[in-house]
Write a structure and sequence with these properties.
Layout lengths: L24 H34 L5 H37 L2 H31 L11 H33 L2
Helix pairs in contact: 1-2, 1-4, 2-3, 3-4
Length: about 180
């Protein structure tokens, strides 16, 4: 499956034309942190603020925005924890196996990947719900600038999430489990 990435300014990475499966695991870990994790960390607080703002301003007319704000707040919390575990536990364990072949690090990789699959499902499922609730990020007539920016950023965030999760689930995790 091919994912297109919408860009707002220069915050979203260009992922076209890359063959990630040819990259070494340590390089792929660094790429994910420096590209996707950096993007997520920058975007989560902004989207949390925007979803809360449009819910408070427009929620009486568009009550679905209250659900969007609540879902995104949950996603922000869970995803922030998830990124920390990857950066501080899983990715260092992968690099340790690459340099030393550590059996303990291999056990960490297996247990972390088992747990992280459900976290990816939660994140993807949450963004799917937000997409459905907003009818594919369709704006109502007369939507204010914050509303427009918020929906554009949500769409972009979802696109990046698909690429991010694909890189981890289908390339990084599979290769790491083969170590």
């Amino acid at each position: 499956m091919t994912y297109k990435t919408k860009v707002i300014g220069d915050v979203n990475p260009d992922n076209s034309g890359r063959n990630y499966s040819e990259w070494t695991l340590d390089f792929l870990c660094d790429y994910i942190v420096n590209t996707h994790h950096k993007y997520v960390k920058k975007t989560l607080p902004d989207l949390d603020e925007y979803t809360a703002k449009i819910a408070s301003v427009h929620g009486d007319i568009h009550p679905e925005l209250l659900d969007v704000a609540d879902l995104f707040k949950q996603l922000k919390y869970e995803f922030a924890q998830h990124l920390l575990k990857e950066e501080n536990v899983l990715f260092p364990a992968i690099k340790e196996v690459l340099t030393s072949g550590s059996e303990e690090a291999k056990k960490i990789i297996k247990s972390e990947i088992d747990r992280m699959g459900s976290e990816h499902e939660f994140a993807g499922g949450t963004m799917d719900k937000i997409n459905r609730i907003t009818n594919g990020y369709s704006l109502p007539e007369g939507a204010c600038n914050t509303y427009q920016v918020c929906f554009q950023m949500l769409s972009q965030f979802e696109d990046d999430l698909h690429i991010h999760v694909h890189l981890e689930n289908n390339i990084l995790y599979r290769k790491a489990l083969e170590l």
